[in-house]
Amino acid sequence: MLSNLYRYFLNSAARLSQHCVLCGVGGQGWLCPPCRADLPRLAAGRCPCCAMPGRQGALCAACRQSPPPWQALHVAHPYAWPLDALLHAFKYRQQLALARPLAELMAEGVRHAPRPDWLAPIPLSAARLRERGFNQSEELARQLGKILRLPCHADTLLRTRDTPAQAGLNRAGRLHNLAGAFAVNRPVEGRFIVLIDDVSTTGATLAEAAQSLARQGARRVEAWALMKALTHGA
């Protein structure tokens, strides 16, 4: 099924505006109404700081005990089929035409969030950027900014060093791996900044970036992500 999905839109990005990428029905946009209705959804009751399932509007025990360095995490969808496959195609098969439709899903997920001064995508390391050719978080942030009419400053944060792959590490390991990995590259004092990432897994990357902004005097920091991996903590 995954390979069929890739083959469907791999040859022609123009099909995204004409056919549903999941079922192939034409004339209803990149995602037809039935497939859109079937997308995986987050539980209505979830922690506002980490987006994990919990009591409606209440902080979970983990966030009460150790609050994240951001004020809120807004997520559009859980990390699950078929969105995980679309994101994989976007990131690793260079299907950049998916940036706009995926950003539209993000926009739906943050429609009730307060408006920040600007959006700040999580930067990639220089080595990862050379390898991939683009930063998926920056592409999402730019498209999201256009949809919501918000400024996007991709130079807000710099990745100061390459870090080993995060896969397979627990949250403590990821935090250690990322310590000191970001530098703030523009004045943020008194500003409300929203960090943009494609997936929040343990939240370690967002945490290190948020701490960097807070240390430089940002008034408020939120994190917006397309998807949340619900098998991990914040």
Can you describe this structure?
This protein is of the alpha/beta class and 234 residues long. The chain has nine helices and six strands; from the N terminus they run H-H-H-E-H-H-E-H-H-E-H-E-E-H-E. The protein has helices spanning 2-10, 33-37, 61-65, 83-92, 99-109, 126-132, 136-148, 171-178, 204-215, and strands at 72-78, 118-121, 157-159, 182-184, 192-200, 220-228. The strands form two sheets. Strands 1-6-5-2 form a four-stranded parallel sheet, with helices on both faces. Helix 9 links the parallel strand 5 and strand 6. Helix 5 packs across helix 7 (136-148).
Tell me the layout of helices and strands.
Elements (H helix, E strand, L loop, with lengths): L1 H9 L22 H5 L23 H5 L6 E7 L4 H10 L6 H11 L8 E4 L4 H7 L3 H13 L8 E3 L11 H8 L3 E3 L7 E9 L3 H12 L4 E9 L6
Parallel strand pairs: 1-6, 2-5, 5-6
Antiparallel strand pairs: 3-4
Task: Give me a quick take on this structure.
This protein is of the alpha/beta class. Helix content is 34%, strand content 15%.
Helical content, roughly? 25-40%
Query: Which runs of at least 5 residues are low in confidence (pLDDT < 50)?
Result: 8-14
Straight-line distance between termini = 30 Å
Number of helices: 9
Biggest sheet, strands in spatial order? 1-6-5-2
Could you state the order of secondary-structure elements as H and E? HHHEHHEHHEHEEHE
C-alpha Rg (nearest Å): 17 Å
Q: What proportion of the residues form beta strands (DSSP E)?
A: 5-15%
Question: How would you sum up the global shape?
Answer: globular
Number of strands: 6
- Overall pLDDT score: 85
